[in-house]
Amino acid sequence: MGFFPLHRLISSQQRDRRRRRRGASLGKRNHNHCLQDDEASRAVKKTGPCLPEDIWIHIHSLLSLQDAARAACVSHTFLRSWRCRPNLTFSPETLNLKINGNGEGGEISDDVSGYLARNINNILGKHWGIGLKALKIEVLDCRNISNCNLNSWLRFAFKSQVEELSLWLHSAFTEVYNFPWSRLSEGCGNSIRSLHLSCCVFRPVAGLGCLRNLSIIELYGVCITGDELGWLLSTSLALEELHLMDCSEIICLEIPCLLYRLSHLVVSECKNLEVIESKAPNLLSFVYTGAQVQLTFEESLQNMTIMDSVWNEVVCYARERLPHMVPRLESLDICTSFERDTPVVPGEFIYLKHLNFSFVAWSSGFSPEYDYLSLASFLDACPALETFTLSVSQDSMDHVPVSGDPSCLRQMTGHRHNNLKDVSILGFCSAKSMVELTCHILENAPSLERLILDPSSSDVRRCSDESVSCLPISRRMVMEARRAVSTVENYIVGRAPSTVELTIVEPCTRCHGAVVL
Asked: For the chain, what is the largest distance between any 2 Cα atoms, rounded to a whole number of angstroms?
């Protein structure tokens, strides 16, 4: 082989090797670029934190109804969460319909009511019915929701085995819509733990199936008789709380002894109620508002609140009746608008530790003939008492004011309140008997640590900064508040032991400083 052919062969082989090296280098660079593109793509997909799907579902469930619906439009995970959302609350506010149109008297117009119903139907139609824990339908301002829609929504709730069911209707439904109690008797109510109904007819009958998980019942403006309620209670053996408000068909409320778990009872403004008889062995708390009724309880009761609407002389009733009726009482709150002097009668509240009295007169002075010092006999009947609060709300002070020599104030001997530590008198005034009660407490409560005297009643808001003003009060009550402060300085400060923290709350000078005595 000659030189030139050999040279051409070597040169050709060298070019092939260089060509292969360039190809390998280019392939490696392309591979690296592909890896970088894949990593970039994965980085783009992971713009949010990497969390398990159930965490995202929980986060989605915490969003408002509107925000949850918007999120479901942009995420498959949120869409699945939307279709099994555990809590659904339907109202004009949650569906953002309140601002779109109102009827007369603040009611939702017919058009908006129809739109609200269609929205609810649409949402429930796309919900899988899986995992639904609470369904709340709050259409208090909508008087034109059809019974067909209401029945459909309740069937969905029963089918989904909800645990909390709330149905708050317009007052126009009170004698029109019949709650389908028969669905409860067919076993559909076994999952319900909390039932809240308003403004409807509820007619359970004897033989209603056992509602084994029902622990809370709240009825407001519901047409139900005492017997019908008794049948409902007899099947709710897990009941813990019972709330009855404005249920005017109930005349006699009887709580059966089978309700071992019942601990809290609230009865308010049931205008035809005459008797409340509870045999529940573990009832601890009772709250009542309304006219005077006959009360019977087991000895377990520890906390009682009586708010007077048309029940006068509640303090006297409590002093005469309650020590024997509820001997284990530990806390007693009473609100009344009229009282006679507290009597001295046998019987003690052996375990009572917290006592609160609220005396209210909306357009005048509170019972001008009432002797505040007579409350000392009530305190004397509470040997374990630790805190005492007296609140007086009135539009004028019509009691006889204190005057003259402090040594002429009346004293009640033989009364000692050895465990009393904390006393507050809100709406403190210059009434002679109130000053005497305050001095009596200072002289007969050796364990007293704090005494607060505030001329303002408990329901008067005080300004917290320059942008908020105190609630307005009459000129004469501003003047009375200043007299009360002067009374404290002249008759009470000198009697306070050094161990007592005495707090005198003076009238707001910024809001009421223009009034001159």
From this structure: 148
Over pLDDT 70: what percentage of the chain?
A: 82
Alpha carbon of 317 to those of 294, 339, 347, 444, 474: distances in Å? 11, 10, 13, 25, 33
The C-alpha R_g of the chain, in whole angstroms, comes to: 36
| DSSP state letter for 77 | H
CB 357 within 8 A of CB 315: yes
User: Do 261 and 238 touch, CB atoms closer than 8 A?
Assistant: yes
CB contact at 8 A, 456 and 427: yes
Which is higher by pLDDT, 24 or 489? 489
Residue 291 structure tokens = 């006219």
Partner residues linked to 136 by β-bridges: 89, 166
Q: Is the dihedral of CA 115, 119, 120, 125 positive or negative?
A: positive
> Is 507's pLDDT higher than 90?
no
Helix (H) or strand (E) holding 233: helix 226-234
Residue pair 471/460 in contact (Cβ under 8 Å)? The answer is yes
CA dist., res. 192 & res. 217, Å (int)? 10
Burial of 148 (0-12, 13-18, 19+ CB in 10 A): exposed
| SS3 of residue 516 by DSSP | coil
Q: Quick one: pLDDT at residue 514? A: 47
Q: What is the DSSP letter of 406?
A: G
478 sits in which H/E element: helix 475-487
Dump pLDDT digits (tens) for 158-175.
999 999 999 999 988 888
CB atoms near residue 444 (< 10 Å): 20
Question: Tokens 């569906």 identify what position?
Answer: 95
> At residue 421, does pLDDT exceed 90?
yes
> From CA 225, how far away is CA 205, in angstroms rounded?
11
Q: 346 vs 242, 315, 324, 329, 381, CA distance in Å?
A: 33, 15, 10, 16, 8
Q: Which two tokens stand for residue 296?
A: 């019977």
Secondary structure class of 357 (helix, strand, coil): strand
